[in-house]
Records
---
Amino acid sequence: MPTATVDGIEVEYEPGMTVMQVCELAGREIPRFCYHERLSVAGNCRMCLVEVEGGPPKPAASCAMPCAPDMKIHTDTPMVKKARDGVMEFLLINHPLDCPICDQGGECDLQDQAMAFGVDGSRYDENKRAVTNKDLGPLIRTIMTRCIHCTRCVRFTTEVAGISDMGLIGRGESAEITSYLDKAVDSELSGNVIDLCPVGALTSKPYAFKARPWELKKTETVDVMDAVGSNIRVDTRGREVMRILPRLNEDVNEEWISDKTRFIWDGLRRQRLDKPYVRRDGKLEPATWDEAFAAIAEKLKGLEGSKVAAIAGDMVCAESMYALKGLMDSLGSPNVDCRQDGAKLKGPRSNYLFNTTIAGIEDADALLLIGTNPRHEAPLINARIRKAWAASNMPIGNVGAVHDLTYDVDQLGAGPATLKDIADGNHSFASVLKNAKRPMLIIGQGALARADGAAILSLAAKVAETTGMVSEDWNGFNVLHTAAARVAGLDLGLVPGEGGHDVANILTGVEGGDIEVVYLLGADEIETRRLSRAFVIYQGSHGDAGAHAADVVLPGAAYTEKNAIWVNTEGRVQHGRRAVYPPGEAKEDWSILRALSGVIGKPLPWKTQGELVAAMIEAHPHFGSANTAPEGNSLDLGSVGVSGAVGDMGFASPVTDFYLTNPIARASEIMAECSAVFVHGQNRAKTAEASGTNG
Amino acid sequence: MAISKITKDSAEAFAFSAPKLEWAKKQLEKYPADRKQSCVIPFLWEAQKENGGYVDAAVVRYLSDMLDMAEIRVYEVVSFYTMFNTAPVGEHFVQVCTTTPCWLRGSDEIVKVCKNKIARAANTLSEDGKFSWMEVECLGACANAPMVQINDNYFEDLDETIMAEILDALAEGKDVTPGSQKGRKSSEPFGELTSLSDPALYGGAE
């Protein structure tokens, strides 16, 4: 490898690296505003100037200059210092000194770098310029006078989010960042520009003036809005979640998160179940834990196991599902299901995982989407597909409804007929897949959560088989889940046992009187009105559909309020950490189930969460290895799905409103407004901001 | 210098005339299919001419479709160059140079004439709708300062009276002669040559 010298330190570097990257290898910090690892190089802030020996006698922008062998770079000479002083002084000429009222204060690149690299005064006596604020929608607040024109937001929205809404207009002193005709930035990833903005020009609108970064407690945990399992940092003050930020994980979410993940936090405060309720005379009334448990125990007394059923929801943790399964086993009930949408998925494990892994998408060279809209079902997987597509221009085919996925897609057909053609090799895209070295397919819940789901899954497996998607070193068969709990649920065997009923049959069973007690563990996405004849126990965090139908409500903890395990769509086991305590009398979910098991006289064989997790790992060893996607390639395509007749109805994505997919989102005012603006296209009068000192 | 901004969407559609479309297709052939956007500046310029001297949202939409560019990318170009107007201009569009040489030679007087005869504010149509004016940076005719550009022609060596006469003549629909209004050719000096006057200098040709 070639070498270069940075401030007298010799470093080896990989060919193609920029001077800035080489300086970082040598441990030298280079200040920058416009440069960002994941975006194209703009080279317009000039903050990263360094001196290169032998080159022209002027400072060089290190972010845009490729390093040459034996280059001698200096980052601490008088020339560099003077250049940084000068650039900093220029940047501050028009930047307002409003740090005390700026939301970026305390975590501002400009503030930090002015302290580290700037001068202590200004020679500028003229008036500063002012720029009109732009309306970028309900999530992003703008104070454009603070903008330093780094264009990170423009590059992010164009390159990563794949929407060309933002741009830099004008030039020189009149340059402004804007969206064309004041259009709201319509992307599920738009919130990331708030993190990218190095100054306080783009800040979070819902979080405006709520807190300062130094007064927040930061907890690293995992998101449950979709099955990606984005790594997040939850910032709390006292008992309230103030905001949610992404955390770097190259294998999962890189450093982005979706808007739902980021702005869900107001939903964590509203519609909360904070005490148990028992239905008396047709009305839910507050009760004590003892009363609630007694009501359940009385109902379960002497009841046959087969008359009891349990459904696990989309956002519940592995521990509580393991406890629920244990409870149902002890009651002798085979009627357990974690697939609220009725997806026809079951083990072995690699039959329902995203086997390629999210990072693995970047190695693929052809992709077939089946019944999925990844942009709304898993925005970060969509961003990864877009990244792979942008790098290699790989062919992407879609079978299902037409969606704007932000990359070029060949629309192959609407439903099972097309899939059958591809499986039989009668479709031109079959040869595209066959000729690819590492082809992959992604089958979504839109293709699986239907009566012929198992047959479609088996067709997809046939496509994978005939086009060589699974080999020793490549596994291109992927199921994209929409629920954070689903993979853990399937891992733990929350599917009907022998003679047991699945969700659809539980609902008919209730109507027919075969099932008398239904335990809903955070399950709200089912037709709860069909449960009216049963005794319904709802355990969860929010008063949504499930709680309204319940006879006993047991208040549980939301995902930010418990230490818990989640498994993402890749099968990656991740640990969430408690950021705040559950409100009121609400408890962690596993402990509610443990306590209930004691009351009904069938205590589960562990007393602490540690013992529970140990038992769970013993039964399902993969829960012991955290943060890695499953290794090895044990997929047997022949065992995937059940071949059979398929219908002719086209595939439709299960996510019709990205912003309102779960109980927390439905409790959130921010999400409601996003849904109104972006999904229903209502005008944005409500987002108009107060002016002057009235913020 | 203020940016010319497009702030309103346009309900109407814009399209090139048939001969212009023919021309545009020829231009597009010069570039690979994925580099169509190379044509954006000449196309905007021609579209501006066909759209009555300014570019609006309809033009941006038309060219963004034609060149496979996002509308904001076309708009960035429009706002970057002062030669693109985003508000209607008069049939006689007066651009007054006010950069230092013209200013030293009295461009303030020319601006005053425009304010009195056309409209108090720049970039607004005159009452009869036939004129509009704006200040521009150096047009590169400093030797003949002060000067203005009216549509495609330069009018040089101006003063208050001459400028008023030109505007009056245009208002009456009369022809006006572009170039120096004081009768000199190109940028030669008024009267006698004051330098390079020794005939011996030109002996080489004999």
---
Amino acid sequence: MLDLYSPGTSVLHRLSPGVKMLSMALGATLLFLNQSLLITAAATLGILALYPVARLPLTKAAAQLRPLLVIFALFFAVQWYFESLTLAAYVVLRLAALILLASLVTLTTRSSDMIDTMTRGLRHLKPLGVHPEKVSLAISLALRFIPVLAQITTEVREAQKVRGLERSVIAVAMPMAIRAIKIADDISDAIDSRGYRS
Amino acid sequence: MTTKDIVYIALFAALTAALGLMPPIHFAGAALPPITAQSLGVMLAGAVLGAKRGGFALLLFIALVAVGLPLLSGGRGGFGVLLGTSGGFLLAWPFCAALIGYLIENDSAAGPVKTGVYVALGGIALMYAAGIPWMAFIGKLGLGKSLSIMVAYVPGDLVKVVLATLIARGLRRAYPNL
């Protein structure tokens, strides 16, 4: 499945996913504890400087922020109008730094590696009744179900189009949900009959 | 937890992802984030699967988003979205589904209106109660201003509550022992 990973071999790509996720959590916390505009601006530049380290073009960094430009403008305008220009700059820069930092982790780490790290981490929760192998099964099933559901939706929509019902949400959603449940039942029977013990 | 429970959890996590493929409704031009069908997945998971499985289904969905799969509507994903302005809403999803499931499980004789109220309590009240303070905190906006931004989303969410209630009740009728 397509993820948001950007392939590469830089130091940041090779760093273990666990280390990256923990540093990101630490960085995000520090960004929120800090109240100074100057430090926030420095942090933003520092995080931006990590993009070339990961051999990611700065256009990639810009692409992370583009979907948020409208909300940035809104926040900036509201803060400037009601509070001050300093606060407006601080809030928007902090948000930008946060997004750039988090995106850096996403861009340099394969989803499968992060899933592996998380399920490995879950092993420590075994005494609390967490079963890592069940979690792995749920993850792989969910990823397989997404294209199946998209397929069912197309089929049901075509069937209802023949009846002139393609614009009715319920007429599409109801048969789709029932078929999905039926497939899920068949799959769980198939898993059980192959001796999967849960 | 039986195999069937695990498969249902995976199914509703995938359903929430598949709902993100539906074209979002843009209102107010590009000034505000669009209304998407994805929170319908939250309501359905809670109303159909109950508290435990519904909550886990959305937890699984959020975990898949966190590891960088582009499952949110518009192909968004990764930690950046979860920490961003609407992160509070997204991180609340497992709890919203669990609350809806809990309320419905404890009142199995509820009629359509009461079921709708339960869905709205988890799918609107709790979701906004988590998402609005988060937005206020991230943007240093204050609760009042964040609240006024979100008023625009209430009508769309009410439509989703009605849809989720109808579908969940229909499914329960088709599969009484889900």
